[in-house]
Amino acid sequence: RSLIAALALALPAAASAQELPARIKSAGKIVVATQPNYPPITFKDTATNTLTGLDIELGEAIGAELGVKIEWQETAFAQMLPSLQTGRVDMVMAGMSDNEARRETVDFVNYFASGAQFYTITALAASGIKTTDDLCGKSVGASRSTTWPAEMEKWSQANCVAKGKPAMTIVGTEGSVDARTQLKTQRLQAAVQGSETMPYFLKLEPNTYVPLGTPFTDVRAGIPFAKTAEGNQLRDAVKGALDRLKAKGGYDAIFAKYGLQSSALPAITVNAGK
Q: Measured between alpha carbons, how far is 228 from 13 in angstroms, rounded to an integer?
């Protein structure tokens, strides 16, 4: 009887280990693409030049839960999905938006909520850009490798053009850092970045940025996986690991550490983006 009880206790751990694809289990590691230019989600600690952020801590926790190491591979955002398709990486943690177009080639395990947020700088806010209504006819930038420019176009059509106002001029930038740089030099009058990053920058550079309105999209960020037998198996293993981290409180503790409680999901989902 004690042997049966011992076996029953051992089963969950054994089942958890079996979830991983054989190649990954044998290698003892999951290769994960990231890009450390997206604080507080993923960035480099300036003192130590080491990767840090919510994605990094959550990724390491997933690895610990699955009994494997996480090997981070710094990858340009535009190359992340191609790298996944060619097998150079096993998954991606970069706050990537789960959307219909991307789901044609990958599956997502959704792990936080986001939204596109308009913002400007204090000097421009003082001189007339006080609400999102003031963005019509203005130059507004966002990273061209994201879905934000397309979402901004929809917003402009509905909130500017449909109301007889001039369309917003949408400028695709090299990334969110480039957008902030152009905004500070006033080549742009406003910019867009993920709502989950705004508290970090408001704290990092006090009296510099002014959020405009509330997020104009409702997005689920996800960890993408290749639509292959191995990818499906890894997807399910990672979702299981996140479910257990959520149940044990580790997931919520990491979000709280970065002041992102409002971005934490009540439950981990798959392909739940809009």
A: 25
pTM: 0.78
Q: Where are the alpha helices (DSSP H) in 20-93?
A: 22-27, 54-66, 77-85
Bridge partners for 118 per DSSP: 192, 212
**The pair of three-digit structure tokens given for residue 100, joined into one six-digit string:** 């219909």
How would you classify the pairing of strands 190-194 and 139-143? parallel
Asked if 95 and 42 count as a contact pair (C-beta separation under 8 A), the reply is yes
Between the CA of residue 27 and those of 23, 71, 87, what are the distances in Å? Answer: 6, 11, 14
Burial track 142-167 (b if 16+ CB lie within 10 A, e otherwise): bbbbbbbbebbeebbeebbeeeeeee
Q: What is the pLDDT of residues 216-270, one digit of tens each?
A: 998 999 999 999 999 999 999 999 999 999 999 999 999 999 989 989 999 999 9
Distance of CA 185 to the CA centre of its chain: 27
The residue written with tokens 């926790």 in the block is 61
The residues with which 67 forms a beta bridge, in sequence order, are none
